[in-house]
Amino acid sequence: MRPFELTAPTTVEAALAQTGMYVAGGTTLVDLMKLNVLTPHHVLDINALPLRGIDTADGIRFGALERMSDIAAHPGVYPMISRALSLSASQQLRNMASIGGNLLQRTRCGYFRDVAMPCNKREPGSGCPAVTDANRMHAILGASGSCVATHASDVAVSLVALDTEIRLVSGQGDRTVKLADFYRLPGDTPAVENDLRPGELITEVIVPRLDWAQHSTYVKVRDRQSYEFALCSAAVALHVQDSRIVDARVAVGGVATVPWRLHRVEAALRGAPPTAAAFDEAAGVAVEGAKPLSNNRFKVSLVKSTIFRALVELTEGSSA
User: Fold this and answer.
1) N or C: which end of the chain has fewer CB within 10 A?
2) Angle at which helices 298-315 and 276-283 cross, to 10°
């Protein structure tokens, strides 16, 4: 790790007045600094900023510095959010990691994290070995010839499914953007991962009220049961009335370059009965446009089976 200056502002205004990289839990930034993937000259410890709190009075609002474990344990949080958080990393890391930091975490692609290897995301124009080399963990959706790295966050998948917004503050004012619009596909500029502007800080995460999202889940498929990133995950919420699906929310992770909302799957579910046959048919459209790589073709069927499993999990034992 290279030498750096550390300061600890106590107000948002003071933090915005300085130039550097923000650190809260440090579960991403510190790792990348140790690997020399990121080498900031100035790091701002923002843990003293007044950006905490969980409000479930009308929808859900999290302060950006709320810890993942505290959000997961809150009784008013929708199950798909709580479960996604609980299946992330380890308990020790969840106790440290902030929700804002989690949404901004960098990819776990091995090429990105190895400074001896080329990586367009780390060094634009250097190449992407994953396109042709080892790529079992990489994306089949939303990728480009410049980058096939998957997005790492579990909870972002659930939050995108729920039309979550984030509040961003800078010296020029504040703005609110949908999380789904915040993340950027790699295209020809994979180093630009999101719409965070210079000097901006995430201050709040805003989940709109959706009462039927209490009937939701998050299923994560991975190589081992703990402390492992997803091969595929599915965040699913269903609204069932009179033995018909009135509405649905579906998004997947571990298979795309950004948290991947599946509007066509949702449309296929609306009006259908909550049966295995209907779930299988809806899951079938999830991988339209997928472009598997040499070592991850299995993800095409895994996406469909993971969505199917989540839908069945939601409806097993239901009176609907």
Assistant:
1) N
2) 150
Q: How many residues does the chain have?
A: 320
Condensed to tens digits (0 to 9), the pLDDT of residues 20-41 reads 999 999 999 999 999 999 999 9
| Token duo for residue 203 | 């201050």
CATH number where 269 lies: 3.30.390.50
Total-model pTM: 0.96
CB 170 within 8 A of CB 197: yes
- For 86, the token pair is 């609980």
CA 241 → CA 216, 259, 269, distances in Å? 15, 28, 13
pLDDT in tens, 117-146: 999 999 999 999 999 999 999 999 999 999
In contact, 316 and 157? CB cutoff 8 Å: no
DSSP 8-state symbol, 61: E
With 0-12 CB in 10 A as exposed, 13-18 as middle and 19+ as buried, what is 316?
exposed
The count of domains in the chain is: 2
Rg (CA), the chain: 20
Q: Structural domain of residue 22, as residue ranges?
A: 1-48
